[in-house]
Design goal:
It contains nine helices and four strands. The chain is an alpha+beta fold. Helix 1 runs antiparallel to helix 3, helix 2 runs parallel beside helix 3 and helix 5 runs parallel beside helix 8.
């Protein structure tokens, strides 16, 4: 796969934000978002824009602990674009290796926020696109990076120590196979490969499934093992 670095992620935050605002251009802010129950488009934009501003504050102040933050009730396109630009600018100024607080596993560096906010924006662009009946596409390199992010978090000792369900998963091997390119990911749960499942789909669908969105996947073997692992791994996204 093509390497995807820090600067790429900074640029992609802005690009995904531009695509998000284009997707909802002209749509009613009160439009319900089916994949985020109880949310409207305005609420979704408020959430994404607030997340950008929160992450920007963490990086700019080099916070060593969680910074208080709250979602705006609503947001508009100009406000969202401005927040993404500020975040990307602050990330570029800081560089990838500055120590800051993160909710993820070590190392706690600014590089975490470039990656996390890129995927936060891309996944909520999916939500917004579905809400307005549009077509969603995600570059393979971005989708693959989202899968890498999820698996990296699920494998960490930090995550297992904070998620009893993840630590207690039954033994097994999960194979994720990309149906577009010769790429696969292997995840071993427990200590012995007693059960296994192969999950096949486009990398975009694999990423969507991991982040709890509807996806077109084929399962061979113990599909329940995949769902148990995904559910147990999802704790970190709510931190």
């Amino acid at each position: 796969m093509t390497p995807f670095g820090y600067e790429d992620r900074c640029a992609e935050i802005v690009r995904q934000t531009d695509l998000l605002t284009a997707a909802v251009s002209g749509a009613d802010a009160g439009t319900p978002v089916p994949t985020c129950p109880g949310w409207t488009l305005g609420r979704l934009l408020g959430h994404v824009g607030s997340a950008h501003r929160w992450a920007e504050e963490v990086v700019r102040t080099r916070a060593d602990r969680r910074v208080p933050g709250a979602d705006a009730d609503e947001g508009d396109a100009a406000w969202l674009v401005d927040g993404a630009a500020r975040l990307a600018r602050t990330l570029r100024t800081s560089g990838p290796d500055v120590p800051v607080w993160t909710p993820g596993p070590p190392p706690h560096r600014t590089s975490f926020w470039a990656r996390r906010m890129m995927h936060e924006t891309a996944l909520h662009r999916y939500d917004a696109t579905v809400a307005v009946g549009g077509d969603y596409a995600l570059a393979h390199v971005v989708a693959a990076d989202a899968v890498d992010e999820w698996i990296g978090f699920s494998r960490s000792a930090h995550s297992r120590s904070r998620s009893p369900a993840l630590a207690a998963l039954r033994d097994g091997v999960i194979r994720l196979e990309d149906t577009e390119e010769p790429v696969e990911w292997l995840v071993q749960t427990g200590r012995r490969p007693d059960a296994s499942v192969t999950v096949r789909g486009t990398t975009t669908d694999l990423a969507l499934a991991l982040y709890g969105r509807p996806a077109d996947l084929d399962f061979v073997g113990d599909a329940a093992l995949f769902h148990e692992w995904q559910d147990a791994s999802a704790f970190w996204i709510r931190l």
